[in-house]
Amino acid sequence: MAEIEIKNLHKSFGDFIAVKKSNLVIKNKEFFVLLGPSGCGKTTTLRMIAGLEFPTSGNIYLDKEDVGYLRASQRDIAFVFQLFALYPHLNVRNNLAFPLKMQKFSKKDIDTRVLEAAKLLRIDHLLKSKISSLAGGDRQRVALGRALVRRPKAFLMDEPLGTLDAEFRELMCLELRKLHDEIDATTVYVTHDQQEAMSMADRIAVMNEGEVLQADSPSIIYNKPKTKFVANFIGSPGMNFMPIHQKISPKQDKVIISDTSINIPLQNDGTTSEENFLGVRPENLKLVSENGIKGNVFGVEYLGSRKILTIETSIGYVKIRVDSDTSVKINEQVQFNTLNDNQIIFDGITNKALASEFIS
Amino acid sequence: MAKVELQNVTKIYDKTVKALDDVSFTVNDGKFFVLLGPTGAGKTTILRAVAGLEKIENGKILFNDEDVTTAQPAARDTAFVFQQYSLYPHYKVYDNLAFPLRSPMRKVSEAEIKAKVTKIADMLKISKKLNNKATELSGGEMQRVAIGRALVREPNIYLMDEPLSSLDAKLRESLRVELKSIQLNLGATILYVTHDQAEATTMADEIGVLENGKIVQIGSPEDIYNKPNSIYVANRLGSPKINILLNKILSDVISSDSYQFGLRPEHIKIGQGELSASVKTIESLGAETVIVLDYNQTEILCLYQGAFDGQRGQTIKFAIDQSKVLFFNEKGMRLS
Description:
By secondary structure, chain A is of the alpha+beta class. Chain A has helices at 42-50, 92-102, 107-120, 136-148, 166-183, 194-200, 218-223, 228-233; strands at 4-13, 16-26, 31-35, 57-62, 65-66, 77-80, 154-158, 186-191, 203-208, 211-216, 240-244, 254-257, 260-263, 276-280, 285-288, 293-302, 306-313, 316-323, 333-338, 344-346.
């Protein structure tokens, strides 16, 4: 259907820079997620792709055609908003038909397309129902259907599941992804929820303060984050950062943290900074009976298949992921160490990951 | 703080709609009780009934064994935290926190107010913001102040209506741990409602699962997760969801005279055992991977620890942790 490319895309509102000279290529048929905290520029980027906002500078290409300064109606793109904007007094059929009627399609074409979209979304039995009689999920499907009937080149979605119950959101995530695969669409999806992003995306672009920090597959973003921000934002909970009060040199394979020696992957790079960080995922730490970093259990979070421990130590709070049958009490003294060498050293000045045997 | 007890509480709207149907549970003094259920299950109605904001048609509400069913809200002395923080925008954080204590009914001295506000601000990590106006705070800080405004008082019970749901996922996660720790330190009695299962299992001493105005199970997070009364309850906890399969699907392996059984995704061991299936989808969630297996045209969700080194369409072996299988009858009730 479509490839979308943004080149040096820049948007400012007065003194405020919403999107800073960003570059991205969203491939044909890709499910691409723009992820970041509120105010990071993800929605502004999406709105510029849609044509709801014009760039201050830079270009947007849709299948190599520069559309950056075309109006929304002149781009073959459909937008699904967070709040379902449906016409409550019309039935499902007329809600779905609305965009086509506006574009003056023939009645026959409208009927065909409405039925096709309704079948795909499994709401064909509801075509005569009033919007007000529908459950939340079915409403969401109608909203999607209204984007679908236009058979656009790309779908843009701005937190379409943001207002739904957690449980229902999980189900809709699966459905959206399935739908995307069935119709071979290119989808650009905005969310602040890393779990949603991880579970749906082919690739994720993590944004902060108007900048794209990294665009990669979920597993690379998770395992090999290039900056501290990405490492912390991705993961539930995010990565732990333990302060290292020493310079890092190439070929180094150990660091001392809180009087404990910790193995790290063989480093390729060194730092000029004397304050650096060891980044460790909670599942790459384990409780040990000796030679570990000591601390007190501050929190125990039971999550069914696992537990997350929050340990209060001299280097701050550290999160450890353990099996759910691990028995630990609040205020208990424990020790922990690393489980493997999948650790990343972050430069204390640049906050960037240092190259090592584990991460290039 | 108090022990709060609901006995057979029924609430009917418009003479026909049963919003609450024979609801009974006890929040013991100093305990964190979470009501878990989807939108419309009756969670907020229960909170409002306990606060005295909602009349009930039947049943009793007791505070420390004293019947307060007809008592006015003020006489019940509860503190409410809402989903949408409602702070006084023109007040400083300090004055927002002090506000409930300055009520003419309470007669708390300014020195005492200062001591309390400082202590709570410290716990909630907003000490540095005490002189900021409420409008100069981030969303997370505003919600901390809203929670703090309840915590400065020592009411009979804190009633919290999805206080974290309007926050970013990251912030929600860190506030979860903090709120639990504060509750333990203060020995606070909290009745908390949410639709978020992670909030329920991570903070609750006890969870009450709601379905259409009825409490269908009460128990510790571990009990509800491991011994759900019904398929409905089994589905409320666990992400990804429990597999519910008809007996015949795995009759060679699992022998029982039940009608159907439940199998949690983490109790399926990939790469072991004698069963084989093809891999339908692989979804990496970072610390774990969700794998959907196609076993004789039945989809089975599995949770694999770490990164899964495999391909779609590939045939793999899997085994089932037999001791963890849950059996249900035709109506979806669990058989012990």
